[in-house]
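Let's sit down with a protein and look at its sequence and fold side by side. We need material for that, and I hope you will provide a protein of your own picking. Once you have written the record down, we can walk along the chain together.

***
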Amino acid sequence: MIRLLLALVLSGTFLPAKKRPNILFLFADDQRADTIAAHGNPHIQTPHLDRLAKEGFSFRKNYCAGSFSGAVCVASRAMLMTGQHWMTLPSEKPQANWGSNQTLPALLKKSGNYQPFIIGKWHNGKKTLDQSFSNGRSVYMGGMADHTDFHVQDLKNGKLSEKRPAEEFSSTVFANDAISFIQKAEKENPFFLYVSFMAPHDPRNPPKKYREIYYKNRPPLPENFLPQHPFQNAPQATSGRDEGLAPWPRTKKMISDQLCEYYGLITHLDEQVGRILLALQKSGHADNTIIVYTADHGLAMGSHGLLGKQNVYEQSMQCPLILSGPGIPKGKSSNAFTYVHDLYATLCNLAKVKPENKIDSEDLTEIIRGNAKEVRKSLFLPFQDNQRSVNDGKWKLHIYPQINHRLLFNLEEDPHEIKDLAQNQNFSKQQKRMEQLMITWRTNLKDPYPLKSEKRLPFKPIYNNDARTLDRWQPKWIREKYFDGRNDPDHGKK
């Protein structure tokens, strides 16, 4: 019996709770990968994320795996929690039901004696919340809200309380609750603390002093800035809610202002992350806590004439990923291709828990330990039925099935995807090879959508400002600045 127990311990099948690390999962919303100073952006102030990168391991080619919906964050979070690609999830509406899929927090609780606790945004419906968490604080059951005017609920023993108004800025509210949890956390059983921020998602209304930092010292416009995208594709990609946050054509001043506001949200978020990390250090839990910092996806913010995430360009698909804690090398990084949902398998390994279901997630621990260079040689980035992209590190191919259009980029020479080579016969060999790579990915994932439309939509380069609609969450000064002072009587009430 003693030998059997020893073998189980050594194999990781069974491990006493006190030996398992706590997991602090910090999740940003809509944060581009290039918005951390330590990762090469000298125009943004992120001292606490910089320190986290210095003390941890950064994955510099981390991506969202696309989406079944214009609300990309719904799909990204579904993939994170299940470890499955959105094309392999059993439901056409994963925000409502994940069926028998074992969610990450549920698995950690069942197999590792973890205490899962949620704070902040949950954008996947009540059924999936019930599958994942029993307890939480300041849970926001929605997609977006005015950061200064929104309602939250507390979760206790699987039951949500009545909604109550949040008393401070969203990032501050969630940080306060995270700090309170950490200060009270017991040491007998490990915790899985999931802190899901709403920032830097719009409305881009950071506290005044944070946006003024950047108004006074403006970051440069994206190198691939355009007044408008060269062609229309699908409604979500070129005329959805995200793209309605500024009129066409985009002006440099307008994009500059939105970048200042976006950067202000990130700097304020960084400050809250710093408060959480300080509390963790003071609590005595830091030496036994794995810290994860990532985001659900990126954001265009003026790149290619776009504002949102409903596209397959690098700026919208890439997002940060940093891990820190016991056993994780300090100050190291990797350019391996990773997806956000690779965290499922990775955290299972670090927690010594074995997944119970078939997953699409890849374990990144061998890369972290320096024993492997990659977990995949290419990336597939599908968005709804209207965009497909494949990336092998040097070449990247976009296919737009509804308009039967292709773009080809040499990322080594053109990382900002500016010079399209698809119409150049000199690169037909590279294009055919990338098309074959896409076929392989589509076959493996059983992609149900065609790559060519029999009823081709017109190729339109011109956009209409009249389609802009104001959502209820935009605060007064945003409405005045970007929507000609239009008002919404339901602001912040739903």
